Structure formats: structure tokens, C-alpha cells
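Researcher: Structure for this, please.
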Amino acid sequence: MKNLAAIILAAGKGTRMKSSLPKVLHSVAGKPMLFYPIELLKQLKAGRIIAVIGHGADQVKSAFKDEKITFVNQTEQLGTGHAVMTALKALGGFTGGVLILSGDVPLITKETITALVKHNDRKGRKKAVMSLVTTILDDPKGYGRIVRDEHGAVVRIVEEKDCSLLQKKINEVNAGMYYVSAKFLFENIKKLGKENAQGEYYLPDLVQLATHQGEHVAAITHVDPNEVMGINNRVELANANLYMRRRINQGHMMDGVTIINPDVTYIDYGVKIGLDSTIYPNVHLLGNVSIGPDCTIEEGVRIQDSSIGNNSTVKSYSIIESSKVGNDVTIGPVARLRPGNLIKDNVRIGNFVEVKKSTLGKGTKANHLTYIGDSVIGENVNIGAGTITCNYDGVNKYQTTIEDGAFIGSDSQLVAPVKVGKGAYVGSGTTVTKDVPPDSLVITRAPEKVIEGWAKRRKKKAKK
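Model: Predicted structure, C-alpha cell format:
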């Protein structure tokens, strides 16, 4: 939007959260709640974004150090009006419209804010110097009440602690989002007083200042109070997560993804899922996750900061972390990919297989009961059950290399650093401590000894 500046109020301690973490850094669907108003303002192409911070200021700055926003520190917490006074120092000379949002209202949408900005001119009447969002609550306790005149115009907002008994019965409340003329804001912000129950400068008192000056204040009443909810405690945080997950899941389903039970499917903001993929219940897709088309993610799977290629299947109760998985891959059930893996096309990783910081070439199989760590494995390698790459000597980690077409028999140990050449064969039960040349057989078994009748004699002896 042209000539738009924004102020995000994010200085509060969030006492009711009972946390050492600043309130605006608590997570909603995988992102700190302050992320959402910032992202919204970027979508609206706001020319200037100012975040007013206070409690945990350094933590907040660090969390958003890559964003093109201006941080202003409200060292003394004297209310929302004082926070805006502090922010206006960074808006000297600005003459457009100023959007004021709260950092603890993460569910607000672009559509609502666009409507707010466009609502300051109502059917040819006098242009509003200020627009705000209201909503209707069955239980308005704790919120500022909207006071209207006999014509329905907003004339005042009264905070809960300053309400009369009659005003407390009002169900229309202030959602804490405003669009204000910069000229009006600069001229009136310092006129705010703090003659109220909390001894603070209330930003909503601008409404009464405007009406006393004969100015028009516009309001839109949101029909969904969930979207404009503020988060003040862990219960409200859980409710916001629930609402956001529903929104995210509905978006994926509308885009052609099957989610069998969206109420128990946990997908973070920004996760990408391709057409005709199916997500089973109790799946967690966390952080920077990308899943290609025609994939199946079975129940209980947890995928974090990873990509899954086309037509791949992750079977039940598998975990994938910070890994890249190719096309036509099958993983699990009950497999674990620890960080740093590159799994190429047509690989099979079966049940109770753990892979860490390794590359598995195209067509390679490790079907069960195996540990692969710090390894580079070529194409079409077979890793037998019970194989272990022994990559750690108690001090350092070492690499195992297995070249194309090699066969690793069951119950083998490869003591790194070691290399198994192309097409080589490691016999079952072998401990490999030296490099194996290509197309060779290596086997380290103790001679097999058969003592006939031993078991029968043992039983007879036991009966005596």
C-alpha cells in the first residue's frame, strides 16, 4: 500500500505467560507470534515498519535480525499511548497513514487489515482521522468497551478498570488495531493523559480526542473474535495454535492435499506439500519442510527442516530431521534420519534403521536394524540387517565409504575410517577394519565347531 507506515506494539513483558521468554517470541504454528504482523505488513508493502520493544529487547532483535524493520526501545512501560509516542520519533516527517498493530495478535489476516485501511471514508461522509477494529464477545471481561452515540458512531473506548457498571455490560470490545492519519497522530499523541485506574497513557483515548474535535472515527466489527484475539496466557496461546493449525490445514486441503484428520495433524506455517499427497493423523511437519506431490506420510511421523521428493513414502512413526530425501524413496516404519543426510532417488530405508550425516546413492537399500553414520554410500548398495558403521572412537568421528554395487552382509561392523570398494562383498558377521578392494570378498568368522551330542549330555547332567 502506498504511503503506509506501521507500528507494532511488542514491548510488554507478558506477565501472565509466566515465562522468561518475551511474550511475542512464544510460538504459534512454528513461528514466534511477532512474525505474523511483520509478515502481514510485508505483504501489504508497508514503507516503514517500526517495532516497539522493551522486555527482552535483545532477544527480540536477535530473533528478527534479518528483517528490514526499525526497533525502538520503550525503556519505561507507561502504556500503549506512550509506546506510540516512542515510535513516532522514528517517523519524523511522515505524512501518510499509520497502521498500529499488536505483536500478540498473530491471527489477523491481510483481508481484515486491508478493510481497515480502506474504511476511513464512509459513503461520502467526512473522512475518518482514525479507523479501528472491534468485535463482539459473550464475555468481554478484560477488554476495552466500545461506546457509541445515539447514531451508532464510536465516540469513546473505556478500559475495563475504568468502566462503570453499565459500561461493563457492553459486549463490543476494542481489538487493538488502528489506522490513523499521521497528521492527527502527531498533533494529538502528546495530549493523552494518564488520569485512569492504571496511571498509563492509553492509545484508545485518541478516539475521544478525535470526537471532541469534531473528527470522524470509523470502525469495522469483526464477526470472528478468534482472528483478533490477543494472547496473554498459555491457554490463549494453545487456542491460537489450534486456530492457526486449522487455517493452515484447510489451506493445504483446498490446494489438493488429503489430510485424513486435520484436527490431529500439526503443520507449521510455511510448510509446502505437493498435489495429491496424503497426510495421516498425528503427523508433525515442523519448520522448513517441503513435501513433493504424490507422497504418503503415515501416522505418527515427525519431519523437521527437511525436504521429501516426489512419490515418496514415510511410513509410521519415523523421524526425519534436517535431511534431503529424493524421489520414489521409502522410509520406515520406525526409522530415524538424524540431521545432515542426503537420500537419493529409489532408496529404501526400513524399520529400526538410523542414518546420520550420510549420503545414500540411488537404489541403495538398508531395510532393517542398521546404523549408518558419517558415511558416503554409492548406488545400488545392499546394507544387511544389523550392520553398524562404527564412526566414533570416543574422541573423533570418521567416515565410512561404500562404493556402487557393494553388498554388506548382515551383522557386519565397518570400523571407520574404512572403504569398501565397488562391487565388493562383505560376508555376514564380518568386522571390517581395513579397506576392501573392488570386487573382493572379505570375511572374518571364527571357525565353526560342532560337538555332537553335547546338548543331550547337558540335559542329562542337569537332571541329576
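Researcher: Any notable elements?
Model: The chain has a mean pLDDT of 94. The longest strand covers residues 172-181.
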